[in-house]
């Protein structure tokens, strides 16, 4: 099968590319190496995903990205430095390949940055996503898996969060753009018979995790003996999901779409295991063998108090079965983190 993945050089995307290539599929990776975090991280992700060593000599982004593209191209893997806001550029890629299924992971991520840059989030996460749906329509691509987010639930009072819950009250621009993506997806399913699964990811962590995310950021600060920003009283909680379990959910969603027609589904991918901020820091301390120096701060605008996924639909519909306990997942993350420190 020929899969087009947007954001295939990111945290989740690079793991998915790796699995698909190992299973003998062909992958077209579209990523724009955005400056949200260091492009060198995505270069390392890309090299890892195609099984190449990290012997890359970094100079500057202008020359490094073309060098990377040249290094990784093969009959089974094509990499494009492409922004999804540029529909003409996307069209050239769609025109050059036979695409069986699209997995749309690319987005501007993060709750707090979206409050500072809401219009940019709208342009990437809504207009960029609609560009993809338009091209799927134009090129007759009928199967799509799309990354949504648990952030759409906001400060939902009902626990655990179910796909049937009302999510009309997001509390950040990022969450609103993800909700908009789900709604637009249904429009293209209804009008153009594009089968689609929208996956609401719950706080994904593991090797290659983005450096701005709490577990990675805290691990670095604790290892360096620096203060960690500790928001609230430590009772905020997240349904942390190990990246291998997320990949399993994506692969099972792909299989479901390939075997079924007339599909539009929204599915939670989480662990159903809620970990408080206090527990998360304590688990990191144990894995790193160092105590954290906490800088106590008030809660931040846009932060949700708790996330907790009802994953019964994922289990029933696609056979999703997460099996990584938080302590084991953190051990795997810390092993990767310590092995990749500069």
Describe the structure.
There is one protein chain. The chain is of the alpha/beta class. It has one domain (2-202, 242-270, 310-322): Rossmann fold, CATH 3.40.50. It has twelve helices and 13 strands. It is 44% helix and 18% strand. The strands form four sheets. Strands 3-2-1-4-5-6-11 form a seven-stranded parallel β-sheet, with helices on both faces. The protein has a two-stranded parallel sheet with strand order 7-10. The mean pLDDT is 95.
Number of strands: 13
Largest sheet: 7 strands, parallel
Structural class: alpha/beta
Cα-to-Cα separation, first versus last residue: 38 Å
CATH-defined superfamily: NAD(P)-binding Rossmann-like Domain
- Rg calc: 19 Å
- Chain-averaged pLDDT: 95
User: How many domains make up the 3D coordinates?
Assistant: 1
Order of helices and strands: EHEHHEHEHHEHEEHEEEHEEHEHH
Keyword list:
two-stranded parallel ribbon; alpha/beta; Rossmann fold
Concise account of the structure shown:
With 342 residues, the protein is α/β, with parallel strands linked by helices. 44% of the residues lie in helices and 18% in strands. The chain is built from twelve helices and 13 strands.
């Amino acid at each position: 099968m020929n899969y087009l993945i947007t954001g295939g050089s990111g945290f989740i995307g690079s793991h998915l590319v790796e699995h698909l290539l190992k299973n003998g599929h062909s992958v077209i990776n579209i990523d724009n190496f955005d400056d949200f975090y260091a492009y060198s991280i995505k270069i390392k992700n890309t090299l890892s995903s195609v099984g190449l060593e990290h012997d890359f000599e970094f100079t500057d982004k202008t020359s490094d990205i073309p060098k990377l593209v040249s290094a990784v191209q093969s009959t089974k893997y094509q990499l494009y430095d492409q922004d999804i806001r540029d529909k003409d550029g996307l069209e050239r890629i769609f025109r050059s390949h036979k695409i069986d299924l699209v997995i749309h992971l690319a987005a501007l991520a993060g709750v707090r940055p979206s409050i500072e840059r809401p219009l940019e989030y709208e342009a990437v996460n809504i207009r960029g996503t609609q560009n993809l749906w338009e091209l799927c329509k134009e090129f007759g691509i009928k199967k799509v898996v799309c990354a949504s987010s648990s952030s759409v639930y906001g400060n939902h009072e009902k626990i655990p969060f179910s796909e049937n819950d009302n999510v009309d009250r997001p509390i950040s621009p990022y969450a609103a753009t993800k909700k908009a993506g789900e709604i637009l997806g249904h429009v293209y399913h209804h009008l153009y018979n594009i089968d689609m699964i929208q996956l609401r990811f719950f706080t994904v962590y593991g090797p290659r995790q983005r450096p701005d995310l709490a577990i990675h950021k805290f691990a670095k600060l604790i290892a360096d003996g620096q203060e960690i920003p500790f928001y609230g009283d430590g009772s905020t909680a997240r349904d942390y999901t190990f990246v291998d379990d997320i990949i399993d959910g994506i692969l099972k969603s792909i299989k479901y779409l390939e075997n079924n027609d007339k599909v539009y589904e929204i599915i939670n991918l989480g662990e159903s295991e809620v970990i408080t901020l206090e527990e998360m820091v304590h688990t990191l301390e144990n894995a790193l063998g160092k105590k954290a120096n906490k800088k106590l701060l008030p809660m931040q605008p846009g932060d949700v108090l708790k996330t907790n996924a009802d994953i019964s639909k994922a289990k029933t519909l696609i056979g999703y079965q997460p099996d990584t306990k938080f302590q084991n997942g953190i051990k795997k993350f810390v092993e990767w983190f310590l092995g990749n420190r500069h």
